[in-house]
Hints:
Layout: E1 10-17, E2 21-28, E3 32-39, E4 42-50, E5 57-66, E6 78-87, E7 90-98, E8 112-113
Amino acid sequence: MDRAKGMNRMKVWKYELQTLGLNSVMMPEGAEVLTVHAQQHRICLWAQHDERHDKDRLKRFFRVTGTGQTWETRAEDRDVYVGTAHAPGLVWHVFEIEPGGRYDVPAAPEPTALLQGAE
Length: 119
């Protein structure tokens, strides 16, 4: 909270995910996933967080899979449904992986801040 005003300073960030597979995303601590959608044939995830945590980033894992496709998951992990994105002719489902162990997946690029009037 902003002590002078008694208010949080929130931001919404957009993260692009790769289709089919495991994505590693660096997100600020306490970020809350809002939704996923297809945008110009890309799968995007939007999350909100308090800007005080911009530099306190944690690696989070997201799996993207198409309808009817199978995937393997480790027994110690938990796949939590985040949302479904519809692209022309395709439907993608996004799950956040709550790992029970360690993953070695390269982090995705930095997110894009949504500015007023932007996508």
